[in-house]
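Quick check before the chapter quiz. The format below is the same one you will see on the exam, so make sure you can read both the input and the output lines.
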Amino acid sequence: MSDLPVLQPGVISIHAIAKVHLPRLELLLRGLAGCSISAPWVPLPGHLLHTLGDVACNDQLVAGEFQFDVESHSINEIASALASVQTLWFEVAQPPTLQDLGQRFCFTPTLGMFHSQLDQAGNQVFGENLLLAAINGAEALNSQLLRQRLAQLMGLEWDAQLEPLRKAALDARYLTEWAS
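Here is the expected output.
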């Protein structure tokens, strides 16, 4: 028996994409992450089109979740390639190992890409230089400006945009499984 830890797979969470863009996305997923696209796409409620604004087209939105081998594929490459779709809301996460921090990339068409590192408990990890830059950038420690810079550092805007999609996808998956 080996003493080496078994790596958990990385996860690609597609929170929302218009059905019309699925062929391009599926081609990207197969080529980049070697994902099997056997997991069903879950239709999302139509009211989300209004929530997402002008970026979403008038097509049905769907969500899906896929795993990838973290030893074989670069999470940076996967996130960059997925961001090229532009009408896609997603997260890509790589779990931490005993030697390295994990990573999380979030993308929304209106905000672009967000990246953070994760510790063993899933908390975001910030280097001293990033925190000092936020503090120094807030002139005379203006508390409102400091709050804004720390919120940006933590990706709170991305989470605010992605959270309704996360909830809708979970609800839709539950209803799909319950109905079968």
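If your answer matched, good. Strands lie at 10-18, 42-43, 61-68, 88-94, 102-108, 112-118, 124-125.
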